[in-house]
């Protein structure tokens, strides 16, 4: 079996293949990751039967951990989209924060909507609202668009049940509840960094909103809109349940129990991410005045169809990571980088390089998680909180930077009437700021957690 430097060169070749196959050959990430998994194992010298088993086990293990969560999350997202609940969320936040802070409103709205909805879809859903608010507030559409895109992007890479961070949590063995809590702690300030970038930099580029519809028109398109309580519940209820479940599991068994017995068992049950998201999916049916077959069947089917690609790519990423975990990488990394304290930065830089090369944040997260998983001990990230912050560092890298090979880049330019050159200055440069700000804040949080014991 390959060891040492030849194994590292094989690993670099595997990453180069993933970049080339997805970016140049336009081979789907699902097939690319599976080919990389099989080829890496066989070339490294694994027994062919063992290599095949590692791939199938890795695929199944990851999906067994987060498959239901992804599927339930897409159901919630579809309900928010079809019912107009996303519009209600934006209008509610606008009323709370005020029209003088329209950019902040759009950033916060995006960050909430993107928890269950893919950022690409969330941007399309809210783009009409953005035009209407830009017209109403007399702001450039560039300002509103970049604020919205930033808010969507931040929780897309940091907060489960978005597929990227929850898949990384599964691959790295991080507690989903802790990832969610820490992801929110990172997302809140970084969302406002995005809003600040929008108002100070993107605002220099004037784009006439030219709204096709006013706010009233947007509401009218959806008919009877749900109440704010019904609109927020499908997002907030799972977060609350998972948070309670995480609290119920602490302190450790060696300490006096926070809760114990049957109460703890039930809290852990309802706080399980899969159970919490299924409850959230049923809660999402209540966003409409009358629950019909269209809601419980057609919307669910459409959500599951949308989730199929996400589930497939996530499983393939798990397969690749499982093969890597069977290779003797840790000794080489430990001898080369041990004691340097660069664990989080190594994860961040790797994800950023893959994001820049591949365009897809989700693929960058999955690939980096697979690379980092067998090296957690060598990088000083094997503890429970180390795994959590590794997930977040990978997320920070996966949004650094968004440019022409990223579908999200083109969705933003297309739906905001933004010239490509303007988008590079207003959006791409902004994602670099978002990524760097995020990793700095993540390191600060890691140190705070370390000091608290």
Automatic annotation (TrEMBL):
Q: Does the keyword Transmembrane helix feature in the UniProt annotation?
A: yes
Q: Where are the transmembrane segments?
A: 26-46, 58-76, 105-126, 138-159, 171-195, 266-287, 307-329, 336-354, 360-381, 388-404, 424-445
Task: Give one Pfam family.
Answer: GntP_permease
Q: What keywords sit in the KW lines?
A: Membrane, Transmembrane, Transmembrane helix
MF GO annotations: gluconate transmembrane transporter activity
Q: Among its keywords, does the record have Mitochondrion?
A: no
Q: What are the boundaries of the signal sequence?
A: none
Name the domain of life this protein comes from. Answer: Archaea
| InterPro entries, A to Z | Glcn_transporter
Which GO cellular component terms are attached? plasma membrane
Task: From the Swiss-Prot or TrEMBL record, give the protein name.
Answer: Gluconate transporter
């Amino acid at each position: 079996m390959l060891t040492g430097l030849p194994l590292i060169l094989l690993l670099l070749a595997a990453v180069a293949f993933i970049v080339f196959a997805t970016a140049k050959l336009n081979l789907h990430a699902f097939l690319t990751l599976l080919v990389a998994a099989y080829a890496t194992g066989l070339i490294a010298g694994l027994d062919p039967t063992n290599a095949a088993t590692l791939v199938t086990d890795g695929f199944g293990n990851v999906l067994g951990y987060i498959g239901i969560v992804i599927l339930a999350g897409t159901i919630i997202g579809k309900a928010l989209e079809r019912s107009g609940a996303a519009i209600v969320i934006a209008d509610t936040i606008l009323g709370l924060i005020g029209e003088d802070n329209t950019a902040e409103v759009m950033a916060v709205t995006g960050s909430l909507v993107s928890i269950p909805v893919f950022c690409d879809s969330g941007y399309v859903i809210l783009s009409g609202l953005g035009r209407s608010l830009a017209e109403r507030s007399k702001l450039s559409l560039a300002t509103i668009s970049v604020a919205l895109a930033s808010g969507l992007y931040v929780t897309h890479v940091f907060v489960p049940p978005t597929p990227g961070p929850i898949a990384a949590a599964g691959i790295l063995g991080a507690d989903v509840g802790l990832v969610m809590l820490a992801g929110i702690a990172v997302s809140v300030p970084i969302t406002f960094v995005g809003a600040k970038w929008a108002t100070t930099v993107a605002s220099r580029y004037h784009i006439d909103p030219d709204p096709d519809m006013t706010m009233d028109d947007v509401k009218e398109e959806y008919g009877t809109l749900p109440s704010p309580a019904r609109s927020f519940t499908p997002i907030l209820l799972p977060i609350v349940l998972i948070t309670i479940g995480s609290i119920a599991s602490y302190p450790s068994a060696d300490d006096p129990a926070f809760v114990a017995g049957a109460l703890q068992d039930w809290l852990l049950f309802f706080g399980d991410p899969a159970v919490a998201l299924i409850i959230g999916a049923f809660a999402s049916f209540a966003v409409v005045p009358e629950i019909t077959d269209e809601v419980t069947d057609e919307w669910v089917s459409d959500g599951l169809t949308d989730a199929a690609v996400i589930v497939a790519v996530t499983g393939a990423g798990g397969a690749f990571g499982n093969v890597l975990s069977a290779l003797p990488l840790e000794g080489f990394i430990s001898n080369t980088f041990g004691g340097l304290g660069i664990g989080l930065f190594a994860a961040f830089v790797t994800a950023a390089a893959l994001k820049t090369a591949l365009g897809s944040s989700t693929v960058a997260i999955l690939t980096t998680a697979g690379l980092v998983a067998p090296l957690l001990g060598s990088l000083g990230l094997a503890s429970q909180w180390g795994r959590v912050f590794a997930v977040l560092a990978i997320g920070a890298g996966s949004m650094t930077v968004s440019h022409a090979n990223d579908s999200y880049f083109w969705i933003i330019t297309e739906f905001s009437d933004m010239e490509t050159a303007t988008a590079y200055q207003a959006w791409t440069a902004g994602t670099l700021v978002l990524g760097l700000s995020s990793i700095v804040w993540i390191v600060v949080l890691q140190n705070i957690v370390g000091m608290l014991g």
